[in-house]
Amino acid sequence: MFVFDADTQIEQVGDFRYRCELGAHYNIGKVPNGGYQMSVVTKAVAAAVEHARPLVITGYFMNRTHAGPVFIDVEPLNSSRTTSTAMARLIQDDVETARFLTTFIDLASGNDALDHVEGAPPIDFGRTDLMRLPTIDGVTPVILEQFHMDMDPALARAFMGQPGDTATIQGLLRFADGREPDIWCLPLVADAWPPAWFMLRGPTSWVPTLEMTVQMRAEPAPGPLSCKFTSRFATRGYLEEDGEVWDSEGRLVALSRQTARVLR
Question: Is the CATH number of domain 126-264 2.102.10.10?
């Protein structure tokens, strides 16, 4: 079993209550990555609502979660012919650590005639000059060991003391263990890259997520994902980060936006 699948297994333990053993493979320090938590919650909600395909999930991270057992309490809010909406709470040691609002859709409810996409994968899948994201023993978060991240050399230099003049990070991503992407991993992918802020200031701070939304637009095709994340505004120590994820067939598969705090 691939790491992601093992670490996102859920079991139903009550009416609309699910349990998961959060692994440490997606930790940043001692805290499981917020996107990883969202992927777990998305699987739990899928087991509780009528419609099968996640469309959007928004999470608010209120207290630190740690690797170990958690419960996900799902509250279905509304179900129509094509959508289901639900709220979910992540509970650990009887403390609510995060809350989520989700919308799921019917797989057959889309309208291809309304497709309109302005943009393209930010990194060409055929590039041969990309550089593997550098790691630093004892410093690099363990989450980065779960992926192969290949970046433009100019951006990779920000991790070696040469930050640039814009807060943008982009590159190709694969699971290190060979797992192919699917719709369930997209929240994790949207939060797996180092903060775009590092491209401007270097990896000298901790940037915890306060709130995050991920829109899952399509089931990704096998192969690497082309990703881009940008922070355009930072005010009084808080910033936004906008992301886009494209699959190997050139389709937009996810969009994200998060609010984060910059801590020294």
Answer: no
